[in-house]
Amino acid sequence: MIALLLRDLRLAVRAGGGFGLGLAFFLIVIVLVPFGVGPDKTVLEPIAPGILWVAALLSCLLSLDRIFALDFEDGSLALLATSPLPLEAASVTKAVAHWLTTGLPLTIAAPALGVLLHMKTDAYAYLTLSLALGTPALSIIGAFGAALTVGLKRGGLLLSLLVLPLYVPTLVFGAEAVRRGAEGMDATTPFVMLAGITFGAFALLPFASGAALRVNLK
Amino acid sequence: MSIWEYANPKKFMATTTPIIPWVLGIALAAMFVGLVWGLLFTPDAENFGASVKILFVHVPTALMAINAWFMMFVASLIWLIRRHHVSALAAKAAAPIGATMTLIALITGAIWGQPTWGTWWQWEPRLTSFLILFLFYLGYMALWSAIEDNDTAADLTSVLCLVGSIFALLSRYAVRFWSNGLHQDSTFSADKETHIDPSFWYPSVIAMLGFGLLFLALVLIRTNTEIRLRRADALEARQRRSA
Q1: What distance in Å separates residue A13's CA from the closest CA in chain B?
Q2: pTM higher than 0.95 for the full model?
Q3: Is the pLDDT of residue B182 over 70?
Q4: What residues contact B163, with CB distance under 8 A and at least 6 apart?
Q5: Does this entry carry the keyword Cell membrane (chain B) (predicted)?
Q6: ipTM of this complex > 0.90?
Q7: Cβ atoms of residues A131 and A56 within 8 Å
Q8: CA separation (Å) from A205 to A62, A122, B90, B166, B222?
Q9: pLDDT digits (tens, 9 = 90+) for B76-118
Q10: A38: alpha, beta or left, given left = phi > 0 and alpha = psi -120 to 50?
Q11: pLDDT over threshold 70, residue B154
C-alpha cells in the first residue's frame, strides 16, 4: 500500500501538469469571481466561504479522471488487480494519493485566496479546518466516480455529472461550518457532520469502487 | 411457485403482455376520474383559490418520483445479488419515467408556488432535494447510455444506484439542515388524522392510484421493449457470425 502510495505521488509530481493544474484552476476561479459580481467588499465578504468551497470542489474534480485512467490504459491496474492487495485497498490508496496532491495543497492555499475575497478574519481557521476535514471526502467519492467511468473513452464529462450530485452533502456542511465561523456562531454541528461524511465515505465507498473496478477489468 | 419464476424473460413477457392493457386502462381511468373530479368538481380552497387544484397533479407525481427511485434501488439490489436480467432492465426502464415525474413535480410546484408563495423558486429543503434527485436520475441515465456492454452497464449503474440512494438521503438531511422551508408538512400520513377535507381527499387518492398504476404500466411496457431490443441485438450478432 505504501509502495503504491509513493509511486502515485512520484508520478503526480514528476509527470507534471496534474499537480499544479488544480491549484492554478483554484486561483483562476477565485480571481474570476470578483469580475463577475463586482469588487465591492460588502458583496464579496459574505459569499467568500461558499465561493472558496465551490472552487476547491471544482479543482478537485479536474484531476479525478487521472486517478485510475492512466493505470487502466497502460495495464498497471490489471496488474494491481492480480496482486495480493485487494482492489478496495488500492482505491483507498489512490484516493489518499489524490488528496495529498490536490486536497492538501488546496487547503493550504485557500486562506491566502480568502484575502482576495475579503473574507472575515475570524473565518480563516474555520476555512482551513473545514477544508482539511472535507476534501478527503471529495477524493474518496471522486475515486468511486473514476472507478465507474474508467473504461469509457470520454468519461470526463460523465464523471462530473455523476460525482457532483454526490458532493452536495460535503459542500453543504463544509461551507456552512465556515459561514457559521465567520458570523461567530457555534460551528460544532457542521464540523461533526462533515467529519462523519468523510469517515463514513472512507469506510464504505472503497467497497463500491472496488466492485466497479472489478466490473471494468472483467 | 415463486416470484423468481418471472425472472425468466420469456415467462415475464408472457405474463405481463396480457396484463399491460388492463393496468394501463385502469390507470388512465383512475387518472381521468381523479383529475376531472379534482379539477372541476372540488370547491376552491379557502385562502388559495383555484390554485390548489394543481396539487392533484403535483402530489402524485412527487410521490411517484421518489417511489420510482426506490423501485430502481430494489431492482438494482436484485440484479447484483441474483443476476436476473429482467430486474436490471426494469431499473433501466424506470429511470426516464422517474426523471419525468420529478420534472413534472418541480414544474407544477413552481406554478403552484408563484401565486401562493409569491416566487417560482425558493432554495427550500424539499424543492432542493427534488432538484438533486433529478440530477441523480440524469447521472444514472447518462451512465446507462455511455457503456456499450449490457452487463457491464447493468453492474455499474446498479452500484451507482445504491451509492446514489445513500447520498440522496444524506443530501435530503443536509439540505434540511442548510435551509428552513416554506413547504407544508406532509398532509397525508398513515398514522395521524388527516388534515384534509374528504372532498379533496378522495380525488387525490384516486389520482395517486392512477399515477401509480400509470408508472407500473409504463415500466412493464418499457421493460418488454428492452427485452425485445436485447433479443434483436442477439439475433443481429448471430447473423453476423454466420455470414
Answers
A1: 31
A2: no
A3: no
A4: A144, A166, A205, A208
A5: yes
A6: no
A7: yes
A8: 20, 34, 25, 11, 32
A9: 999 999 888 888 999 999 999 999 999 999 998 888 888 777 7
A10: left
A11: yes
Q: What is the pLDDT of residue A16?
A: 58
Any idea what DSSP says for residue A99?
A: I
Considering only residues B42 and B138, tell me which one the structure prediction assigns the higher pLDDT: B138
In chain A, what's the furthest Cα-to-Cα distance? 57
For chain A, the straight-line distance linking the first and the last C-alpha, in angstroms and rounded, comes to 23
Residues of B in contact with A180 (CB under 8 A): none
- A148, A151, A165 member nearest B132 (Cβ): A165
A200 pLDDT exceeds 90?
yes
Closest Cβ–Cβ partner in B136, B160, B175 for A148: B160
From its phi and psi, is residue A118 left (phi > 0), alpha (psi between -120 and 50) or beta? left
Of A148, A161, A205, the CB nearest to B156: A148
Sorting pLDDT into bands at 50, 70 and 90, what band is A127?
A: very high
Interchain pair A148, B159: CB under 8 A: yes
Closest approach of A14 to chain B, Cα-based (Å): 32
- For residue B124, pLDDT beyond 90: no
What is d(CA A150, CA A170) in angstroms, rounded to the nearest whole number? 24
Side chain identity, residue B169? L
Which chain B residues are Cβ-neighbours of A149 within 8 angstroms?
Answer: 143, 146
Mutation for testing the B interface, residue in A197, A207, A215 having most B CBs under 10 Å? A215
CA distance A137 to B55: 39
Judge: B156–A158 Cβ closer than 8 Å, yes or no. Answer: no
List residues of A whose CB lies inside 8 A of any B CB: 144, 148-149, 151-152, 155, 158, 161-162, 164-166, 168-169, 172-173, 176, 189-190, 193, 197, 204-205, 208, 211-212, 215-216, 218
CB-CB under 8 Å, B135 with A165? yes
Give the DSSP letter of residue B185.
P
Q: How confident is the model at residue A204 (pLDDT cuts 50, 70, 90)?
A: very high
- Which domains does chain B possess? 19-181+199-238 (1.20.120)
List chain A domain ranges.
2-217
